[in-house]
């Protein structure tokens, strides 16, 4: 598993832990204050996803650019990637799809299949 995937798994576990805490507070007098746990879990999950996408792309590019590292071509590609990564915040399905098509010629959304969600439904939900 890549370093990016390991980092993502840690972030999602943190979000899950917050949701478990929220569930424990349901039905107690602290329920109103517990809503902050749900919102924090969402923020952590989104941050984990954004970080994963950026880190995974950088991992892949590090391998691809090894042959041209230090050359004018390598520097140009690295600058372009750095600029695109700076603009890639708050990723949604369309931005994610576009980034992977532009850089890898792959529609990553075709692989988004979950229980009760086909690719189109998952893309729309995200």
Question: What is the N-to-C order of secondary-structure elements (H for helix, E for strand)?
Answer: HHHHH
Shape call? elongated
Tell me which oligomeric state these chains represent.
single chain
Strand content: under 5%
Distance between the termini: 24 Å
Integer average pLDDT: 87
Query: Major sheet: size, sense and barrel closure?
Result: none
Q: Over all CA atoms, what is the radius of gyration?
A: 18 Å
- The helical percent reads over 70%
Q: What's the domain count?
A: 1
pLDDT < 50 runs, ≥5 residues: none
Count helical runs.
5
SSE-based structural type? mainly alpha
Keywords:
mainly alpha, 126 residues, 73% helix, 0% strand
Topology readout:
Layout: H1 3-25, H2 31-64, H3 72-87, H4 93-104, H5 119-125
Helix pairs in contact: 1-2
Description:
By secondary structure, the chain is mainly α. The chain has one domain. It contains five helices and no strands. The chain has helices at residues 3-25, 31-64, 72-87, 93-104, 119-125. The chain is elongated and about 65 Å long.
Structure, briefly:
The chain is mainly α. The protein has helices at 3-25, 31-64, 72-87, 93-104, 119-125. The model has no long low-confidence stretch (mean pLDDT 87).
């Amino acid at each position: 598993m890549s370093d990016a995937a390991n980092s993502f798994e840690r972030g999602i576990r943190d979000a899950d832990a917050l949701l478990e805490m929220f569930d424990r507070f349901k039905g107690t007098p602290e329920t109103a204050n517990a809503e902050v746990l749900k919102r924090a879990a969402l923020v952590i999950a989104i941050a984990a996803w954004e970080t994963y996408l950026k880190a995974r792309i950088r991992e892949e590019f590090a391998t691809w650019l090894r042959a041209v590292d230090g050359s004018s071509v390598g520097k140009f590609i690295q600058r372009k990637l750095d600029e695109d990564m700076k603009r890639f915040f708050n990723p949604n399905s369309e931005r994610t799809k576009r980034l992977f098509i532009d850089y890898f010629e792959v529609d990553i959304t075709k692989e988004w299949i979950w229980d009760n969600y086909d690719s189109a439904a998952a893309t729309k939900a995200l």
